[in-house]
């Protein structure tokens, strides 16, 4: 669909494991006869060496990591256009803007295709961009799609923004009927120049709930709240601050009653919070311990997530 | 030999934190005799020995600080080379682990005391009772 | 229980016949398609036609890790690059890493031998296999994954790390088979206890442990802590990854899948073959691998061949558990010692944990070994006098086993670094430049 063929070399820099991103791409690529390098994320210098030594032609990567890899190349004086054989990349697992796409395309000298998927629906592979890059085709032979008003559940008129609802049509192990993805998008009904009749959706425009995504992982504030509430010495108030797609900072007020003047205990508590959040969400947070009463107390629905990221 | 008390205050590593605490003490006319700061990435604990410790503790608590009152032992050090070494040597020979320490120099500057927090104050005092050490009497600092 | 009874119990004459045919094919292909092999053959004047019997394998030159590095990245591939579908690499701690390339058929075979392994450990379609080996360039995760997929077991691709979550998954999913390094298994048991989860209450019934050296005593310990049956698995990236050999339920040596791999044990110094039962360096030859045929690869692993018939019915010969590495034998004051010997002593003595580190120094021209061992929690709170005795007991036992006097230092529980992959047991501080 995007020109990948036998002879291509795909460097898969998504996390392998319970997160579905990496596996699905791995299976798909081997089916087409593409050579897969299961690099996983991280170890940027090695990633770049692999690209150079193995003549990688395609990347599967998150947008934030792609930006980082590109900046490391610049620092090292590597010119991807001359020194590498990269042709294209599949970006997914976190929302990103058209500007980010253009920036990465420009830095690496490649074509970037958006892909869409979610673990509940087999991971990535639900929707994919064709070479025209005007929205993602949803594989309508496998998935039935609707766009509904997130408040009422009623279908919105075609072309209007709403929550994407998907039904699997041929999944054996875990059929899902009218699964509410919480992803906001709209349907593009006009036929695509590429000739495929599968309808397209626009890139994901946001989330209909308070879930947020860090490092490609879906996180709900409730998960973090649950962890904090299970730890002795943490007061009620907390805040999650997001400055990038790569990390989150959790600000926590300590409980006056448990303070005994020992710094060791506080350090231990901080470590416990980090470890337990990591265990619950798969993402290792930064944690700041604050004096009680420092965080704003809001009435009713507290604003727990401060998202400073812009798309 | 009797115990002395130390006040510990939790503080984030941000400008003005120490100022806020000391302002409260100053306004209540409480004298700081010894103090230390332990800090780590992001936060720290400020420790004081003051002349009116119970009063200072209640006051800070009332003002909303995260504060605790901890037992400690004050041990006199000779004002000469090796003064600290002599004391620490005895403590370690008894297997006493120092959790925090600060120094109090008495008004006359004739005597200095090492103020230490340990695991179990009573047990440590028992262990030290036979040693040739002089201890700080809480009444001396009232 | 067999995965592939016909092949696993093949009559020996038939097996040898198949091996010879496959060896001839492999050597021919390697000679024709891999310039590096051709050059090495030509240098000593050997041609594929010289292979007339299985014993003629001794005429083929050895392949070492250094050879593989020399042709990095793709110089050992025997097929065009577009037939290679997957790449794996061994961690390159020294110099360039070693690259392994797989065709679709190689991946098939990998799944087949891994399915045999998992079946030996009792895995069936109804089992839940938790893969706590790392995924990615490392072969561990993928190998087990392919085998489990072949069997049709439910796979939980947890990968290595994030221990608390591993344990929660075992509890919530009812994992029945655990695969990871043995040191990581022990660490998991410890973390489970910290979390208030008694490891024996998990549903684990078996585990396949490998990718690092371990001992019988460690097996007993893992089996006791988890109440499972622990199996030893062997493999290496250069040959295929995990799945070269595995223990059957007899647990007396590891069956090598001889229809895919040929086994030799040689004297590491002279390169001469050793008689069965004698310990030396394991040398492996792949006879079905398409992407990257490996001829007489020197594994540096020390073992011996067991050729007696195994009661399990498999006709494949066995190798004893890996006894050490030709390159991590510690030579101290001229005596060869292996970490497993020290581990054995530690596990025999009550009051210490199976977490240790061996530090070798040379303060004044003479090697000294210090073994740091963690005390158990109970011991830790004991009297100094008692600790002194414990230390002496350990020193005595290690000396009995290795013949070397060492200094034992007891350290606080949980103070030594824990590994989520291979444990770093030896720290050699001797500077050899003197």
How are the secondary structure elements laid out?
The complex is a heterotrimer of chains A (311), B (142) and C (434).
Chain A: E1 9-12, H1 21-32, E2 35-37, H2 44-54, E3 58-61, H3 63-75, H4 80-83, E4 88-91, H5 98-108, E5 111-118, E6 123-129, E7 136-138, E8 143-148, E9 162-168, E10 179-185, E11 187-188, E12 200-201, E13 206-207, E14 212-214, E15 217-219, H6 221-229, E16 234-242, E17 248-254, H7 263-281, E18 286-290, E19 305-307
Parallel strand pairs in A: 1-2, 1-3, 3-4, 4-5, 16-19, 17-18
Antiparallel strand pairs in A: 5-6, 6-7, 7-12, 8-9, 9-10, 10-13, 11-12, 14-15, 16-17
Chain B: E1 4-12, H1 17-27, E2 32-39, E3 43-50, H2 53-62, E4 67-77, H3 83-93, E5 98-105, E6 112-118, H4 121-128
Antiparallel strand pairs in B: 1-3, 1-4, 2-3, 4-6, 5-6
Chain C: H1 5-8, H2 12-33, H3 35-44, H4 65-70, E1 84-90, E2 98-103, H5 104-120, E3 128-131, H6 139-151, E4 154-156, H7 163-174, E5 177-180, H8 182-194, E6 206-209, H9 216-226, E7 229-236, E8 241-247, E9 254-256, E10 261-266, E11 280-286, E12 297-303, E13 305-306, E14 318-319, E15 324-325, E16 330-332, E17 335-337, H10 339-348, E18 352-361, E19 368-375, H11 377-380, H12 384-402, E20 407-411, E21 426-428
Parallel strand pairs in C: 3-4, 3-5, 5-6, 6-7, 18-21, 19-20
Antiparallel strand pairs in C: 1-2, 7-8, 8-9, 9-14, 10-11, 11-12, 12-15, 13-14, 16-17, 18-19
Q: Can you walk me through this structure?
A:
The complex is a heterotrimer of chains A (311), B (142) and C (434). With 311 residues, chain A is an alpha/beta fold. Chain A has 3 domains: 1-120, 3-Layer(aba) Sandwich (Rossmann fold), CATH 3.40.50.12780; 130-209, Roll (Luciferase, domain 3), CATH 2.30.38; 217-307, ANL, C-terminal domain (GMP Synthetase, Chain A, domain 3, 2-Layer Sandwich), CATH 3.30.300.30. Helices cover 25% and strands 29% of the residues of chain A. Chain A is built from 7 helices and 19 strands. Chain A has helices at residues 21-32, 44-54, 63-75, 80-83, 98-108, 221-229, 263-281, and strands at residues 9-12, 35-37, 58-61, 88-91, 111-118, 123-129, 136-138, 143-148, 162-168, 179-185, 187-188, 200-201, 206-207, 212-214, 217-219, 234-242, 248-254, 286-290, 305-307. Chain A has a 9-stranded mixed beta sheet with strand order 2-1-3-4-5-6-7-12-11, sandwiched between helices. A 4-stranded antiparallel beta sheet of chain A has the order 8-9-10-13, with no helix packed on it. Chain A has a 4-stranded mixed beta sheet with strand order 18-17-16-19, with helices on one face. In chain A, helix 3 (63-75) packs parallel to helix 5 (98-108) and helix 6 (221-229) packs antiparallel against helix 7. Chain A is globular, with a radius of gyration of 22 Å. In chain A, 38% of the residues are buried. The model of chain A has no long low-confidence stretch (mean pLDDT 85). Chain B is an alpha+beta fold and 142 residues long. Chain B has 4 helices and 6 strands; from the N terminus they run βαββαβαββα. Chain B has helices spanning 17-27, 53-62, 83-93, 121-128; strands spanning 4-12, 32-39, 43-50, 67-77, 98-105, 112-118. The longest helix of chain B has 11 residues, at 17-27. Chain C is 32% helix and 24% strand. Chain C has 12 helices and 21 strands. In chain C, strand 6, helix 9 (216-226) and strand 7 form a beta-alpha-beta unit. In chain C, helix 8 packs parallel to helix 9. Chain C is globular, with a radius of gyration of 22 Å. The mean pLDDT of chain C is 90. Chains in contact: A-B, A-C. At the A-C interface, helix 1, strand 2 and helix 7 of A face strand 1 and helix 7 of C.
